[in-house]
Specification:
The chain is α/β, with parallel strands linked by helices. The chain has two domains: 200 residues, Rossmann fold (3-Layer(aba) Sandwich); 53 residues, no CATH class. Helices cover 32% and strands 28% of the residues. Strand 4 and strand 5 form a beta hairpin. It is globular and about 55 Å long. The two termini are 30 Å apart.
Length: 274
């Protein structure tokens, strides 16, 4: 069953074209990796699906309805670090800050809402973190709390914006394994934005790769080819496979890895450029 459909979508920001006449569909229960260079439009696409950005042309339909703000069936994990380092807010209170009543301005949660917060913490394996302040948590632990927030309301579509950023390879794999487990147990459709393909390889059903306003959707073998990526990057690209890993190369440079390092230095970041 198709749960999301983009039909001839074009979108611009600040006079720059981000997506140009893009069409594709996602099916129920899929785990789809959203890839692309900095500025390719990953964050922009997620925000458009959430109804937060207007389209220039085309239409996005989610569960048969036009994309709009506050869709109850969509869970969203935004990009970024959790809270300020000196905050004393407990992990449980942080997750609760995204629950229904708080979203509408109420300072209190009902007993049922607190039960759902505890359920979400349990689903991401964070019960032991519930009373610990955010300032004491590692980056990986904070990512679990953001994921718990995204599960509130029992969504059917999960949009994850760079949940692996700032994590070492071990914690990256832990997040991917957790999301894959949640996808199976909750029958979720997952759109997982990432800088690099390799941490996702064992979990993916398909890849959605963005570049130069274009999009390619298919299996890893269908999308991760020199011909497809050269079209998306607008330059000659080689795809090299070594020991089960895939490297996207432009000359001698690993494009995805170089892009990831460039992003983490703060010189350029997708939230600022797409």
């Amino acid at each position: 069953m198709t749960i999301m459909d983009l039909s001839r979508v074009s979108l611009s920001l600040g006079g720059r074209s981000i997506l140009s006449d893009v069409s594709f569909s996602l099916e129920a229960g899929e785990f789809v990796g959203l890839l692309g260079a900095n500025g390719a439009g990953k964050t922009t696409l997620l925000k458009a699906i959430l109804g937060l950005l207007p389209l220039t042309t085309g239409e996005i339909r989610v569960f048969g309805l036009p994309a709009s703000r506050g869709h109850a069936a969509i869970g969203y994990m935004p990009q970024g670090r959790v809270a300020l380092p000196w905050t004393k807010l407990s992990s449980r209170a942080f997750v609760g800050s995204a629950a229904g009543s708080r979203r509408w301005g109420s300072p209190y949660l009902s007993s049922a809402e607190w039960r759902e917060v505890d359920w979400a913490l349990a689903m991401v394996g964070a019960q032991a973190l519930a009373r610990r302040p955010l300032a004491e948590l590692s980056g990986g632990e904070r990512q679990r709390l953001l994921l718990a927030q995204a599960l509130l309301g029992h969504p059917k579509l999960l949009l994850l914006d760079e949940p692996l950023i700032h994590l070492d390879p071990r914690h990256q794999q832990g997040v991917v394994d957790l999301v894959r487990s949640l996808q199976k147990s909750m029958n979720l459709t997952v759109l997982f934005a990432a800088h690099e393909l390799n941490p996702l390889l064992g979990a993916l059903d398909r890849v959605l790769y963005l570049g130069h306003g274009l999009a390619a959707l298919g299996t890893v073998d269908e999308v991760m080819t020199s011909a497809v990526l050269s079209r998306l990057y607008g330059a000659a690209i080689d795809v090299v496979r070594i020991n089960g890993r895939i490297f996207v190369m432009s000359g001698a440079q690993d494009v995805e890895h170089a892009d990831h390092l460039h992003d983490e230095t703060g010189h350029r970041h997708e939230d600022l450029h797409v």
